[in-house]
Amino acid sequence: MRHEINESESLFARLCSDAFYGGFVYRNPKFYDPTEQEAGDVILWVRDWLVIFEVVWRSRQAQGDTKSFIKRIGEKRDQLLGDFDVYAKAENDIFMSNEHGETSRYDHDYFNEDTTRGVVLIDAEELRGKLHFDTLRLTLESAHPIAVMSRSDFAAILDEVDTVPDLGFYLGDRYRFLKEVYTRDSDRFLRLGDQMEQELIGLYKLGDNTFSIDRWNASTDKRFWHRYQIERASDIARRDADNAESDFLDIVAARIRDSHGRGGFTIQHAWELALRTRRERAWISAKIQKKINALLDTHRDQKFAVEHQGTGCWDVFYFHHGIDSERFRDEAQRMANRKLWVERVENNFQHSVFCFAFRSSPINDSLAEVILMVSDASKWPEISPDMLAEARKYFRGRTETSPIKEFPNA
To answer: What does pTM read for this prediction?
Structure first.
C-alpha cells in the first residue's frame, strides 16, 4: 500500500515540477523525533513561501467504501496541522531532496506564518460523495490556509496560478473567502467531483485576483469559469500573449545557478526571481528584451532597477557587451553596490540589492554569460560623499512605478 501511495505522490510531484520548476518541489521531507518522521508528502518551498501537500490516494480498483476514504481526508487535514508545527520549530532538522535530485535542509529562518499554506490533495478516480461538514469547517479554523481539492481540481487551476507566489496568494484569498461564505453555502464545497475549484478560480479572475462576495451571492448557478472565459476572452488573450515570454526568467534562473555551481544551497540563487508573480515576470521579461535589443544595436551598457515588494529588496538588471569576463563581473558587483549606496542614503535601505548581469559576446552577439551579484546593506554602514556621487551617476533613489495589472490594457 505504501508503494502505491508513493507512486501517487510521485505523479503529483512531477505535475508540480512541470508547473513550478523542479528545483522548488520536494517530496517526502523528513526529520527525526526521535525516529524518522515525514513533514508532508510534497512541498513547494521558495524562501518564505511554503506550500505543504498531504496526498490521499485510492485507485479505481481499490476495494473499500467511500465513507472510509472520506475519513482519511480528515486525517490528512490533521496531518497538515502537525506539519505546520514541525516547520515552525527551529529545532527540527528537516532534510529533503527536490525533483532535480538535489538535497537540502529547510531553513527555519525563512518560516513565515503569513506565507505558509496547506493542501489536502485527493487522488481518486471517479470519486463521488460528500465531505463531512466539519472536515472543511475545521480547515477554516486553522491558523494557516488549508484547501481540500482533487488532483484534477489542482491541474485545472494551474494555467491561472503557475508560480509559487501566485498559488500562495490564491490559496490565502480562497481561505478568507470561504470563511465568509462556507456556512451558508457549504453544500457547494462538500460535493466531490463537481469541479468547484475551477468555478472558484473563474470567480477570482473575474475580480482581477480578488473574490467578490457580491458576485458570488448574485449568481444562482455559480458557473464563473464559463463566464470568465466568455466575458474576459479578449483580456485573457492579451494577457497570455504578454505572459508568453516570461519563461525567459526561468531560463535566467537556471543559467545563474549553473554559473554558481549546482547544489541544494544554490537553489537560493534562483529565489529572488522565483518570488515574482507571473505578471511581474512578464513585465520584467519585456523590459529585459528591450534592453538586450538596445545592447546588441548599440554595444553600450544598459541597466534598469525594480523594487521587489515581496522581499523589500532591489533587483538591478545590467547588460554589457565585451569579452572580458572578469571586468564584467567586477562592474556587475559595482552596479549592485551603487544602487545600494543610493538607497542607503536616501531611504535608509536595510536589505539587499541583487544584480542580474548579462554579457553579450562581440564574436557572435549572443549572450555569453549570465551571473548574479549581491550587495547587502549590513556591509555598508557608512556611505561616503564620493561613493554617493558615483552612485548617482547611475541610479536615482526610489521612484514611483505603474502597478502591474492582471490584464493589460487594450
So the answer is: 0.91
